[in-house]
């Protein structure tokens, strides 16, 4: 074998080894792909009830579908409905949305999005319904906040404003900004 043949064999052997290593690394990247997190558990037609320390009904939640992710300590809901009871209240508030997520870090906070509606179950409540795009529910303190536009319908009035703070224990609702309203006199 002459030098030229030997050089060609060494050149192509080196090229083949380098090509093979590159292909091996690219194959590993494709095989791994993006890591898709899978839920730790799921539920369909969820019904859950929570009680306070005295044994009184505190809240209920239902959802069409639920997925819990332990690594993020987050629960995702499809069409959630929360029933919140204030302290000493027999008449709950029903809060529904298209989507929701529950984050349990230091407090229990539920974030509800898309077509959020708060409805009074008791017909004697002055506020009958509140609708907005998204809300944050603090389930420990039983408060609700949003910075979105809010529309309120009540017995003899309608109101709207930007941003809201509601306290279910004190039975108070406050619109934060750009408030307008229409009131009807009792007939």
From TrEMBL:
A single Gene Ontology CC term: outer membrane-bounded periplasmic space
GO molecular function: glycolipid transfer activity; lipopolysaccharide transmembrane transporter activity
Membrane topology: Single-pass membrane protein
Function field: Required for the translocation of lipopolysaccharide (LPS) from the inner membrane to the outer membrane.
The protein, known as: Lipopolysaccharide export system protein LptC
UniProt KW Transport keyword: no
Known partners and oligomeric status: Component of the lipopolysaccharide transport and assembly complex. Interacts with LptA and the LptBFG transporter complex.
Alphabetical UniProt keywords: Cell inner membrane, Cell membrane, Membrane, Transmembrane, Transmembrane helix
NCBIfam families: LptC_YrbK
Localisation per UniProt entry: Cell inner membrane
Entry similarity comment: Belongs to the LptC family.
Pfam family, one: LptC
Superkingdom: Bacteria
Gene Ontology biological process terms, A to Z: Gram-negative-bacterium-type cell outer membrane assembly
Keyword Cell membrane: yes
Organism of derivation: Parashewanella curva
């Amino acid at each position: 074998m002459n030098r030229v043949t030997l050089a060609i064999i060494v050149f192509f052997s080196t090229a083949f080894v380098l090509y093979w290593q590159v292909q091996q690394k690219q194959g590993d990247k494709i095989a791994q792909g993006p890591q898709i997190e899978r839920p730790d558990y799921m539920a369909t037609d969820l019904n859950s009830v929570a009680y306070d320390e005295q044994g009184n009904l505190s809240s209920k939640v239902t959802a069409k579908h639920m997925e819990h992710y332990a690594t993020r300590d987050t629960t995702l809901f499809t069409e959630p409905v929360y029933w919140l009871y204030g302290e000493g209240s027999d008449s709950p508030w029903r809060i529904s949305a298209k989507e929701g997520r529950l984050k349990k870090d230091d407090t229990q906070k539920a974030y509800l999005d898309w077509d959020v509606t708060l409805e009074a179950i008791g017909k004697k409540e002055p506020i009958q319904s509140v609708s907005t795009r998204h809300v944050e529910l603090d389930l420990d303190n039983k408060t609700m906040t949003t910075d979105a536009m809010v529309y309120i319908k009540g017995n003899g009035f309608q109101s709207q404003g930007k941003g809201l703070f509601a306290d279910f224990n004190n039975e108070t609702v406050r619109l934060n900004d750009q408030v307008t309203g229409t009131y009807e006199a009792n007939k």
